[in-house]
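Input chain follows. Return structure tokens only.
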Amino acid sequence: MRSMVGRLGMLLAAVLCAVTLALPAKAQVILRDAEMERALRELARPIIAAAGLSPNRIRIVVLKESRLNAFVLDGRTIFINSGLLLKMKRPAMLQAVLAHELAHIANGHITRRATNAKAARNTALLGLLLSAAVASVDSQAAGGLAVGSTSAAQRAFLSHTRAEESSADQSGLRYMADANIDPEGMVEVMEIFTGQEVLSRSRQDPYARTHPLSRDRLRRMRGLAAAYKETEPPDPTSVYWFNRVKEKLSAYLSKPSYTLRRLKNDNSDAARVARAWAYHKNSKTKRALAEIDALLAKRPKDPYAHELRGQILQESRNFGAAVASYKRAAALAPREPLILAGYGQALLAAGQAEAALKVLEQARARDPFNPRLMRDLGQGYAQTGRRGQASLAVAERYALQGKLSDAAIHAKRAVDLLPAGSTGSRRALDIIDAAKQQTTRRKR
């Protein structure tokens, strides 16, 4: 129980202090989806192993941002803009981006920069803050990040030296070769940014500004890639998950007419998921379900297809059928917190609050920084008459969003309603104390 209190305290400290590094210039949005996160894990897994890192410690987060960029903020989180992900033409290119950023982590560039800048604390704080404001591909949550993508402080913090880039190039290419991934993928990624250095800073893609690129560097990279022995053909598993993540993301961000026209004669799994999403966006529920059912006829144990079916049914207000689909998805993927969160939300909508709470608590144990999940937990507690826990859940949701003054109001209610000295009461007191610290800071 103490570890949960400590973790909450760390998060609140992050929310309090993050503004010291990043003043908001443009709100950013994180895109979250269970299928997308699974696909990125599959694509990164062989590279993470080659880098000697633990897959359980690495997170890959997609930002809804059309400009091309990828970066790391701490020793465990890679951020990639949706625009760059959609620009990738084959798995090796996306894996090259991941390999390069993993090299920055494995080579200690982030830690050294944080130490040299006396900002190690802010590195972790930014990562936590970015985890707190969530937007979901499956419409489960949305929130703007208090981190400006054009902030001068952020640009300075993210920028790598040419020595670091050269080191990351060599290490990343080695990881790819060791994982039997075509190193030419990294060359192809860098060729996208050829000529960026001659543009004015306002016209450059952020990747070119934070990852210095020169003709000499590109020439060296081509030589290094050519030096590695010829790799085997692309791994079918990587191709499969690359197609699924790219097509689903494209369908989410594009107009339905574009998706349906482009994939008209494509009956691959990825195309069916994309068309289902496009039909759903057009409120053509029957056609959306037909696409998912065709995929399930081929892959009856695909949890992400069952999850998407549940979401479509739920958003079409067919709550009973949605619960059944989500239940099947959760049974097939019991460790996926976003699937569990969707299942809990469906149970709430179906009027099964007690069952919903059990599922939502499981989801929170695996994903404690999801504001939408906290909102659903608050509703579940309120519907079952647990007013103190409901107030605490609302307080924690506001704290996750950085709204500590609002969080303190509900935390005070929770303290009045919960047993003195209980874990919940102590968590509420942590929030109240954090709000006071924030107020003190602002007065200085």
